[in-house]
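Note to self: user wants both folds in one dump. Writing first protein now.
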Amino acid sequence: MVGRGLPVTVKKLQEAQDKEERLREAVKEYKDHIAAGKKTSYRVVGKKYDVDKSTLQRQVEGKGQTMLEFNATKQKLTPHEESVLVRFILESADRGFPLRHRDIIQYANVLRHSRLGSTCEGVGEAWVYRFLDRHHEHLQPHWSKSLDTQRARSLNPDAVKSWFDLVEKFIVDAGIAPENIYGMDESGFPTAYAGKERVIGARGTKTQHKQGGADRENVTAVVTICADGTQTRPLLIFKGKNIKESWVKGNSINAFVTCSDRGWTDGQIGCNWLKDVFEPDTREKAQGRTRVLLLDGHSSHYTIEFIELARKHNILLLGYPVLLDADVPFVWNFWWYKR
């Protein structure tokens, strides 16, 4: 099958890189000849490597910049910052958290603002495409699949192998003890019962369909279980602006209760949970050792602040594949209890 042709921008970049490499080789050969007392000239060496003799002379004498060096000074990120970003993108994908364009923009702007201040102009969507072109040898775009499609295909041999490779690399080979391995997931529940219950209707009719209450609201439960059978305090997220007294009344399991506009988790809630629940609840058992936290690769928790907070406390984040979510047994037990 014939592969896709390279974009024009990538071809131009490759040509510039090839020219740069020829120039470096020409400079080295000229200097080596002079150091060895051999007779040579800029014209002869330049012709051999197909570079302009004047450009070669300037480089030998240490004057001026190459075109790539000049272009680098106009980039929003320095070469080192771009290298850091590439490594972070690859590391995130390797751990089960592939980044989208908007994620790359966010992380790039963090690097840029940390160097130039928060008032400097950030990067945009067009910059991401140029960035990907510059690093096409390491980075490649992929189409993501819908969650339902992923769930239907998640148990294929490649997916299973990738999962166990991930576990072996970051958990087994790293010697992470079971008491420091945690799986976290979230599930939403309506506040009113949505299952089958006994109701009264006209004799001779079949199943009675009951309309769901208009006041039903979603509550998100976040649970975290450890490989040694223990668990941290659960997180409950109600829909609202402020926490109501009824939400925390009778909180026998000491759940961490909070709220959001939709009753869903978000980046800020995720950071608060990591800082106020997970880290202190698991700190004593860890005794300074690395803790592994497995979470959904599509989770809204995975923000810059969440990542930095985890890094600060030696918490390794890994994204588990679909159908391995912690919510499967949890959801079943929850609904069974509500019956």
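First done. Writing the second protein, which came from a different request thread.
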Amino acid sequence: MVTTRVEGMGNVGAPESAPESPMERRLVPVGAVVLTTFFALLYALRGGITAIDRGEDPRWAQQVVWSLAMWWTCLPLLPPLAALVRRFPVGRPRPWRNAGVLLLGTLAAAWLRHVVMSPVVVAISGVPDVAASALARILTYLTVFLVMVALLHAVHYYRAERAREVREAGLARGLAEARLAALRTQLQPHFVFNVLNAVTTLVHADPMAADRMLTRFAALLRVILHEGTEEHALERELDLLARYVELMQLRFGDRIAVEWAVADAARGARVPFLVLQPLVENAYEHGLAWRETGGRVRIGAARAGDTLELVVEDDGAGPDVEAGSITDRATAGTGNGIGLRNTRDRLAQLYGARASLVLERPPGGGTRARVTLPFVGGAHGNGEARP
């Protein structure tokens, strides 16, 4: 829930500004000094040229000192004007009322500048202010203050727009995190159910193997449940995957061989939590589980420029889809396919269109699951190694 603080009618419907950064706090006063200095130098230049046209000594130093004193004494009125802009910005729901308040405030500032600060200018410069009427001076100051109010509005609305973008980004990030948490919550029971189902197949055939499998599964599950990040190093992912492969080896024995082909340059890359386990599970359960002659699972990872490629390949039953399709093989066989769909959804949440999960049919048969995602982090190296 987003709560907006309202202080009086002046803030109703007004943009909510982001907190000022130290640089922004310095920007307005520095900008005001630059603006008034610019006006002062223009005023001094005009005064000097007018004196030359009259055949008089321009007295440039005196012109500059008097002009700077005249315009810099406008600066003390800037904070009240800034407060007025924050309190009564020209925007909905009452733009005309707020514009009227700002105009009256600007007129009051111009009058105060002339009445209060003119003696200060005379004291600093030693030159009496007799070059123009009071009305002319007030109108001049009014013009300057209106320019300042316009610039203050620009700063105010810039900060409000930035605050809106920050809020929207926060909401989007929160929704994405909630979606990832839901996907992860969906994946864990699916993983637990499938492993326990595998244990039941061993209970009567090989009780000792079932006991070892259950013990190792409990240790792996404890680690998985305490893993709190959505991403971790590929090295960590491979460690968890190796434990899962041990469970499958207890179930299938030596009937299914596992090959690891992980390039050293890829090991430090950041990858989604449990991105490989559903792919390996898919290879075992839907590619090789019912194959009497055994088979092979190959797990690979490599870096290609700014891309990380993860591959899980088996030589079992190929997918019931065209090569290159991203349809889950598990869907066709069981009507389920939670693991692969979950993996694809998490990739989309984390990386958008920069990541993909594709199922392919290799030339020699079987299935190849290929994940591509942006390469982030990692050390450089060569060669292949097991976890």
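Dump finished. Worth passing along: The first strand starts at residue 231 and ends at 233.
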